[in-house]
Write a sequence for this structure.
């Protein structure tokens, strides 16, 4: 179902019933993020982990549900504006935001699995994929997906 | 054998063990070397694959393109780890260190690669290249070095395993050879065992066949012996015996001759050509058809005949009876050149044949002995009766008469007693010869008893013909008999009975001839008598009395009567007990008639005892009742004295009855006294010493002389009634004789009793002559016990009458 939702021609506003999850490398010492910090990371405002290592943002392709959810619901912007916002950061001479766009949740999970500093937002439904078995699901404001008060849904 | 099998089994075990070792080593070699080599190859490949994927990932920039390579590199790394784990599971100690080294270097490279891939994926290619140069490449090189060391270790192990396998194989080949050899050996042993088993089975079958044959022959043998025991015809038994030969061998035959030194004949032959059997029957064995020929001579005789039929003969087998005499010959016949083993067959057949023939001869002899007298060889009574039976039947058919003549030698006993039994037997044989000689061929002589012969004269026209035969027989005794050193003149008494005049069956004819003979003998012997029915009546009467007397005592047919003896004053001096017999069939039988029979049959002993006991018991009773009976006289037979224990018997009876001995007088005839004077006198003296009195009964009738009287230990003389009967005043001779007897007796201190006093004149004369006691019808007839007791009661003085004893205590003479 998640794969279907990710098909570009579907209504981008379509939203999976299970919500979304933020996943990081197993070795990442961060297990819980505040919702605002998550937004800050994807806005490019916050670009390092607590241990000062660089955050590598993993985004899904533009037509995917996680990307639409990120742009419209979390960041409340548009893809163009979002790109431009990030380019402006690099343009200002600040440490550029490292963004990797992957074309499936499995690839996203796999990427996170291989890159200790990466963070990705995937559909919670994709967490059952083999590729996602080796990543860590972050608590958002202390809540895991499915728990009451979880924000990424 | 057991050693061979043990060796074979050990070789087999070693061979199998060696092969097992070789297989284990080979498997080990495969496991370690082949599998190790495969794993090592996989390891190298995956190592390179991981490296290649890593390099590809390094070469592209899009993470979506990079990720498959990264995954491939990781997968290859995973397979490297799997290969390493498999290598560890091989559990090869020699390469454990190499594995550990490789794993360590590989993990180091793997870590470096992960870091580099992370940098690549982050898009930090420069850093990635740097890390690659600094850590990745050296770590990979080190991993490769470790890998090569591991390969070398595997190679060394493989080489060593190969050597071990080779050595094991070489050993196994040796063991295998031993195994094969052992197997072949076992096979050979099994084949040999199988052959032995087959041979044993064949032997067993042969033995079984022999046993079956033996069982069959044994059954035949039992059957033959049964035939012998059941007296089957000899020819049938011998036929079965000679058939044994052909049962053994279908081409073998046998023949048996029976006979003796006088004559021989072919009895049976089996499985011989008919013509040969006929020839053997026709030509009797030499010499002159007897069985006395030597075996060689017999063999020539039969062999010559057999050769004409293309047969050869066995050595002749003599058949001998237990006493050693030859009773037959047995010979086997077989086709010439057949090579028969004769001995066991002939032995078996000869044994059976000898038993059968001897048994048959024995039965013939027994049958002869059963019908013949062994001393004279004449037919015995049994056969004679049979011949009489046949003769009477023939006489009926031809209207003729048959005479049976009974011959008894006179005074044969004296010859036997004086000259001995041997001479007596010679007499009998001579008589037999003379009788056979004087009779016709058709007549028969038999010996039916000790000195008794019978003659059967057949085909007689009239009874007088039998008398002529008897006269002829008597004439044969006219010539003296020459017996050893003696010469004797013998006579015979003959009795004749004629069929059908004097009887219609052999028993009756013989009995009547015997009666007639007895009549002749009583007439003095040396003569013959023809049976008359009167003779038969007296003999039959005697036979009846003899038979009835046997049980007279048991049936209470005997009783006593008592006759008083009175003195000259007419006073009772005593009573004489007189025995009486009343038989339902014969009626009242006189003692004169039955006492001699009782004496001849010995019954007088038991009867005399009963008389003495009864008389004594009554006398004792009278004494108890107060009757004055001074004397109880009882007659005693000489046979009683000769019985041996008479004295003791009288003593016992007196004791039992309680009768004083002096009240008993025993009367014995002077003839009985004189027959055994010494023996009787001794016993009389014994009894007299006890007090018993003795009287000579019937004095004057015996052959003793008056002079003997003084030597006889008696107390009384009873003058025989014949003298008293003739006692008349005018018969002076008799009176003188009686007077002499009385005087003589008185001179000897003996009392005199006159028997048979029947008239007053006799009584008066006897009183005049001084006779002490009188007895006779004139005075008192013999009376019953009751009558006598009435008489005694009447004569008893009133004052002496005592209470009579109860009737139940009376001892009746007949009770």
């Amino acid at each position: 179902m998640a794969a279907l939702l990710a098909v570009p021609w579907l209504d981008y506003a379509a939203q999976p019933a299970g919500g979304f999850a933020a996943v990081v490398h197993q070795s990442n010492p961060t297990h819980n993020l505040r919702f605002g910090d998550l937004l800050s990371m994807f806005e490019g405002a916050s670009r390092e982990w607590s241990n000062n290592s660089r955050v590598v943002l993993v985004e899904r392709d533009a037509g995917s549900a996680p990307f639409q959810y990120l742009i419209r619901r979390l960041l409340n912007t548009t893809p163009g504006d979002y790109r431009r916002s990030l380019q402006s950061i690099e343009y200002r001479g600040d440490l550029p935001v490292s963004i990797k766009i992957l074309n499936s949740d499995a690839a996203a999970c796999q990427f996170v699995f291989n890159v200790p500093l990466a963070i990705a937002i995937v559909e919670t439904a994709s967490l059952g994929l083999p590729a996602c078995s080796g990543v860590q699901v972050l608590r958002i404001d202390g809540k895991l997906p499915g728990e009451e008060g979880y924000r990424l849904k | 054998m057991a050693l061979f099998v043990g060796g074979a089994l050990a070789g087999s075990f070693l061979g199998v063990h060696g092969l097992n070792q070789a297989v284990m080593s080979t498997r080990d070699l495969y496991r370690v070397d082949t599998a190790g080599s495969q794993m090592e190859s996989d390891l190298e490949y995956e190592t390179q694959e991981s490296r290649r994927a890593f390099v590809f990932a390094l070469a592209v920039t899009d993470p979506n393109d990079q990720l498959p390579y990264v995954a491939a590199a990781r997968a290859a790394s995973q397979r490297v780890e799997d290969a390493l784990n498999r290598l560890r599971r091989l559990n090869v100690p020699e390469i454990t260190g190499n594995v550990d080294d490789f794993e360590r270097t590989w993990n180091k490279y793997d870590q470096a690669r992960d870091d580099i891939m992370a940098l690549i994926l982050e898009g930090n290619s420069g850093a990635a290249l740097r890390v690659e140069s600094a850590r990745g490449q050296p770590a990979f090189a080190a991993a490769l070095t470790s890998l090569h060391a591991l390969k070398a270790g595997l190679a060394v192990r493989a080489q060593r395993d190969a050597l071990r396998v080779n050595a094991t194989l070489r050993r196994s080949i040796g063991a295998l050879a031993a195994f094969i050899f052992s197997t072949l050996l076992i096979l050979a042993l099994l084949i040999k065992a199988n052959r032995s088993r087959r041979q044993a089975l064949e032997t067993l079958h042969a033995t079984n066949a022999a046993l079956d044959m033996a069982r069959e022959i044994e059954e035949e043998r039992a059957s033959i012996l049964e035939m012998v025991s059941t007296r089957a015809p000899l020819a049938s038994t011998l036929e079965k015996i000679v058939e044994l030969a052909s049962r053994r061998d279908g081409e073998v035959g046998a023949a048996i001759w029976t006979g003796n030194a006088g004559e021989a004949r072919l009895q049976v032959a089996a499985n011989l050509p008919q013509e040969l059997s006929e020839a053997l029957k026709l030509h009797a064995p030499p010499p002159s058809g007897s069985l006395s020929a030597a075996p060689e001579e017999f063999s020539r005789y039969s062999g010559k005949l057999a050769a004409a039929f293309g047969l050869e003969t066995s050595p002749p087998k003599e058949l001998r009876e237990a006493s050693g005499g030859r009773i037959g010959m047995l010979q086997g016949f077989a086709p010439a050149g057949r090579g028969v083993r004769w001995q066991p067959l002939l032995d078996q057949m000869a044994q059976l044949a000898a038993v059968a023939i001897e048994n048959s001869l024995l039965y013939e002899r027994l049958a002869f002995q059963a019908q013949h007298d062994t001393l004279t060889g004449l037919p015995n009574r049994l056969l004679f009766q049979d011949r009489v039976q046949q003769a009477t039947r023939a006489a009926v058919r031809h209207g003729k008469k048959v005479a049976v003549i009974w011959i008894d030698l006179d005074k044969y006993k004296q010859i036997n007693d004086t000259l001995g039994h041997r001479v007596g037997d010679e007499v009998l044989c001579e008589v037999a010869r003379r009788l056979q000689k004087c009779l016709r061929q058709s007549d028969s002589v038999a010996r039916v008893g000790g000195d008794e012969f019978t003659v059967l004269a057949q085909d007689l026209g009239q009874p007088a013909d039998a008398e002529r035969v008897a006269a002829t027989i008597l004439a044969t005794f006219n010539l003296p008999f020459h017996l050893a050193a003696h010469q004797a003149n013998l006579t015979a008494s003959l009795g004749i009975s004629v069929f059908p005049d004097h009887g219609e069956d052999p028993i009756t004819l013989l009995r009547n001839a015997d009666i007639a003979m007895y009549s002749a003998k009583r007439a003095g012997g040396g003569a013959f008598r023809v049976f008359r029915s009167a003779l038969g009546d007296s003999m039959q009467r005697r036979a009846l009395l003899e038979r009835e007397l046997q049980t007279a005592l048991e049936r209470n047919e005997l009783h006593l009567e008592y006759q008083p003896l009175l003195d000259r004053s007419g006073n009772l001096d005593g009573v004489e007990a007189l025995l009486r017999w009343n038989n339902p069939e014969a009626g009242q039988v006189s003692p004169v008639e039955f006492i001699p029979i009782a004496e001849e049959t010995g019954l007088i002993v038991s009867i005399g005892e009963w008389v003495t006991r009864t008389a004594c018991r009554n006398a004792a009773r009278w004494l108890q009742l107060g009757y004055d009976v001074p004397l109880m006289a009882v007659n005693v037979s000489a046979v009683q004295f000769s019985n041996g224990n008479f004295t003791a018997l009288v003593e016992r009876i007196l004791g039992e009855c309680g009768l004083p001995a002096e009240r008993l007088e025993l009367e014995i005839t002077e003839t009985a006294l004189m027959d055994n004077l010494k023996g009787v006198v001794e016993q009389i003296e014994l009894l007299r010493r006890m007090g018993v009195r003795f009287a000579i009964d019937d004095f004057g009738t015996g052959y003793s002389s008056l002079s003997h009287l003084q030597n006889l230990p008696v107390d009384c003389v009873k003058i025989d009634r014949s003298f008293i009967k003739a006692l008349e005043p005018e018969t002076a001779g008799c009176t003188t004789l009686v007077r002499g007897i009385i005087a003589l007796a008185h001179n000897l201190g003996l009392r005199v009793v006159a028997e048979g006093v029947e008239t007053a004149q006799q009584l008066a004369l006897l009183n005049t002559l001084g006779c002490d006691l009188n007895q006779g019808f004139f005075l008192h007839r013999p009376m019953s016990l009751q009558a006598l007791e009435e008489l005694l009661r009447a004569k008893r003085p009133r004052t002496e009458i005592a209470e009579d004893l109860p009737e139940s205590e009376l001892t009746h003479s007949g009770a």
The longest strand of chain B covers residues 572-583. The radius of gyration of chain B is 67 Å.
